[in-house]
Design a protein that fits this description.
about 230 residues; mainly alpha; 3 strands
């Protein structure tokens, strides 16, 4: 049993019948041999089904839009990469020399793809229910401690809905400043709401700056509302 097999057995309680599948699941396209891209494609589909079913049963009254937002939050690269890093997956990825030198074993997209490829490999090596059980264990608390669906909507949408519900005009966004070179620009945006001091947001895109300014405005308005 090599290090990867031992790690998988000790960490996730699974042992491959076909060890070649495990090796393929861990092999990034930058390394020689069969890459994990096809397994990642399959694992992504299995993951979507498992998460969708879990949400469907645990939230029987949730509308389709809320279920979709919750699923997206669970299967996005940042979430999967955090899980993969916590499991120590990066230490067992097979990378080309260039990716190794640049810290590819810590890159979010590579970690997320590797985890999905592992799910696909387990599915092929066993069956759907075995893979589903492993996925449910890997996601663990993330499936049990779900955020409220409203929290997953972007701040600009939430702010506009909050204002509309109170008969107020929608917010305006004003570009204040753009700094930096073309490929490293930083945007500063003001969120303007009648009878409120503006809030400011910054980001590497105008959209992210607008979202930050909207989030700050919404936080202020809801705080004022609570203290009425």
């Amino acid at each position: 049993m090599d290090n990867a097999e031992r790690w998988l057995s000790e960490t996730l309680g699974y042992s491959f019948s076909d060890v070649a599948l495990l090796r393929q699941a861990l092999t990034h396209r930058s390394a020689p041999g069969r890459s994990n891209e096809r397994l990642e494609f399959l694992g992504d589909a299995v993951l979507d089904i498992v998460v969708s079913e879990a949400l469907f049963h645990s939230l029987p009254d949730a509308p389709e839009g809320d279920l979709s937002r919750l699923r997206a939050s669970l299967v996005r690269d940042t979430s999967l990469a955090d899980i993969a890093a916590g499991l120590g997956l990066g230490e067992h990825l097979i990378l080309g020399s260039g990716e190794r030198k640049t810290g590819g074993h810590r890159r979010q997209s590579i970690l997320a793809d590797g985890l999905e490829a592992l799910f696909g490999a387990v599915y092929l090596d066993s069956d759907f229910e075995t893979a589903a059980d492993l996925i449910r264990r890997v996601l663990g608390e993330k499936l049990e401690d779900l955020p409220h669906a409203d929290e997953l909507r972007d701040p600009k949408t939430r702010l506009q809905e909050w204002l509309q519900a109170r008969g107020a005009a929608p917010p305006d966004y004003e570009l204040v400043n753009v700094t930096g070179k073309a490929h490293q620009q930083r945007f500063e945006v003001r969120c303007l709401v009648p009878e409120q001091d503006p809030t400011t947001g910054e980001g590497h895109s105008r959209r992210s700056a607008e979202q930050q300014s909207a989030r700050r405005m919404l936080e202020r308005l809801t705080e004022d509302d609570r203290h009425g």
